[in-house]
Amino acid sequence: MIKGMKLNLSTVLLCSTLLAGCFFDKQLSEEEVKTVEALKSELNRIESDLFALEQDQSTGKGGLIGTLKNQRLEVLKLNKELFVQRIASIEAGADFTIKPIASAVDQTLVDSIDEDLNIAADKLKNAKDEAAHYSAGLLFALKQANVATQENAITMLEYRKSLAKYGLYINDLGTNVKSSDSTSTEAEHSEPSAISLVPASDGPFGLSMGIPEEAFGATLTKVVTGKFFIDPVPSPHEDFEQYVLEFGKNSGLCWVKAISKDIPTDSMGYFLKSKFNELEKVLSDKYGRGVKTDLLLPGSIWNEQKDWMNGLAKNERYFITTWDSKNGLKLPNDISSLAIAANAEDTETGTISLEYTFTNSKACEAENQALKNESL
């Protein structure tokens, strides 16, 4: 979708540039001068971000981090073309027969996105602070991926802000915006499908079984065959910060996993268990009584109360509650089972994961296994 957007924008950009040559002697009003100055200031910031990202050795490579940075690069390039086009159209003063850009401005949306940008900036700072504690290994890679994810979130928010603040809505990309001379006082708009969200449903985190992978567009980042990080989900929960979805080519969405924010705790896991029990009660109120497992494997040396987190970190202790339709539970929204589990990153930090499996999971897993085996 982004490649198509770039092609259309490049065509319009060329037309705008040619028209600018025809109207080079146009005298801009004071308001137009201020607008162009603001646009050029934003353009300089975007070009600076682009330059820094293009120098990053991860860009252009595969892997999770490379994929995240490549996505950010494409959005920055798109945003740059939008600003160049807008500047050219103002300086040209052309009266386009088919207007490629609608001039409607949505200040309410701008204010809302500014609030989201402040929150995203704090998340990015926290992610960078956490990543600074690691220099290698799996945790280092995960923390770096989290940094890249937060950077992508900010870039996408800035892109959306540009659309709303400067009226950079592209009419031929599935965007429906009323023109500036409309009698309506509100601009109706929707973002291109590649970056828009699926409408929230009654299922977990606003998701429902069978939604095709393509419906989520650029909000997905591939992890392995069939599985993707998504940012954001239609209905996020404040206790969770990462979400993973699994799709089958034909069966669609079949599995959802949410991972909580880091939970500081003690060696006995008091605060981790407290948060687990809190979430477990919420789920039990909604889905019925689950089956709880608090098990230390036979022969484990982590058998003292003070060793609780160590046992969890070494995968020798399991603290899980499951809900399964096989046990007679009538689960809604095509859910066949769900499970909540406590996890330990180290003796002082834990997380909670929550997984939902839909009734189409067997067909979904078979499809993805077939895809994995194609290269053998």
Can you tag this structure with a few keywords?
single chain; 376 residues; alpha+beta; Protein Transport Mog1p, Chain A; 2 domains; nine-stranded antiparallel sheet; 8 helices; 11 strands
Question: What is the fold's blueprint, element by element?
Answer:
Elements: H1 2-22, H2 30-55, H3 63-92, E1 101-102, H4 107-131, H5 137-166, E2 169-170, E3 220-224, E4 227-230, E5 240-248, E6 252-260, E7 263-264, H6 270-287, E8 291-296, H7 308-313, E9 317-324, E10 335-344, E11 349-358, H8 361-373
Antiparallel strand pairs: 1-2, 3-4, 4-5, 5-6, 6-11, 7-11, 8-9, 9-10, 10-11
Question: Biggest sheet, open or closed, and with what strands and sense?
Answer: 9 strands, antiparallel
Q: Radius of gyration, Cα only, in angstroms? A: 25 Å
Poorly predicted spans:
1-24, 95-103, 169-197
End-to-end CA span: 31 Å
Fraction of residues in helices? 40-55%
Order of helices and strands: HHHEHHEEEEEEHEHEEEH
CATH architecture of the largest domain: 3-Layer(aba) Sandwich
In total, how many beta strands? 11
> How many domains is the backbone divided into?
2
CATH fold call of the largest domain: Protein Transport Mog1p, Chain A
Q: How much strand content do the residues show?
A: 15-25%
Coarse morphology: elongated
> Structural class, from helix and strand content?
alpha+beta
**In DSSP terms, counting alpha (H) and pi (I) runs of 4 or more, how many helices?**
8
Kindly provide the name of the CATH class of the largest domain: Alpha Beta
Query: Overall mean pLDDT score?
Result: 79
